[in-house]
Amino acid sequence: MWVRIVTGVVLGGGIGLAVGMVGKSLGGQCALLCNPYISTGLGVFLGLFIAAQSQSHDGAIQQQGLPVLGSPGAYQEAVEAPGLTLVTFYTDTCTHCHRQMPILGQLAEEAGPEVTVATANARTLREIAREAGVRGVPTTLVFSAGRRVETLRGVADLERLREVVRQHTASAAPGVPGS
């Protein structure tokens, strides 16, 4: 985090200084861009702002209590597990993915032990995501006893996820009407 902030300050300040020096040498009249001191201050401020906005969100995803499948072996083990498994592919920089994670966390709490809800970083598991047809994130793949039964693209609200779980747990249970 500190490295990102220092880098933002140095780069922002350097760019601001350069803009101010060029503006001053060209005889410009703009008080903001033709004054090296003011433009350096603006550059430092923008560098700090960008550094603060670019922090990694991977920790926020893990805080939802969802397992993060970090290797092909972990992914394979999760999708081949008995019962229903939902795997949501995400990236750290995707704002829609960060909206999806609390919803998945709530679903995991409600669903119980017969349903596994997990996440997989689409950049870490790039080859698996490509083979699974993940073209954008978030994408949730639903597996029942190792077989993919549904794909949800984009942010899925809690009610939609509940319906998917109901549909596929009911169809897996023998003797349940509608199976």
Please give a structural write-up.
- The model is unreliable at 174-179 (pLDDT under 50).
- The chain is built from seven helices and four strands; from the N terminus they run H-H-H-H-E-H-E-H-E-E-H.
- Helix 1 (2-25) runs antiparallel to helix 2 and helix 5 (95-111) crosses helix 7 (158-172).
- It starts with a helix and ends in a 7-residue tail after the last helix.
- It is elongated.
- Strands 2-1-3-4 form a four-stranded mixed beta sheet, sandwiched between helices.
- It folds into two domains: 2-53; 58-172, Glutaredoxin (3-Layer(aba) Sandwich).
- The longest helix is centred in the first third of the chain and has 24 residues, at 2-25.
- The protein is α+β, with helices and mostly antiparallel strands.
- Strand 3 and strand 4 form a beta hairpin.
What's the total number of strands?
4
How much of the sequence lies in strands comes to 15-25%
Rg, nearest Å: 24 Å
Average of pLDDT:
85
Task: Describe what is shown at a glance.
This protein is of the alpha+beta class and 179 residues long. Helix content is 52%, strand content 15%.
Describe the SSE topology:
Elements: H1 2-25, H2 36-53, H3 58-62, H4 72-79, E1 84-90, H5 95-111, E2 115-121, H6 126-131, E3 139-144, E4 147-153, H7 158-172
Parallel strand pairs: 1-2
Antiparallel strand pairs: 1-3, 3-4
What descriptive keywords fit this protein?
single chain, 179 residues, alpha+beta, Glutaredoxin, four-stranded mixed β-sheet, 7 helices, 52% helix
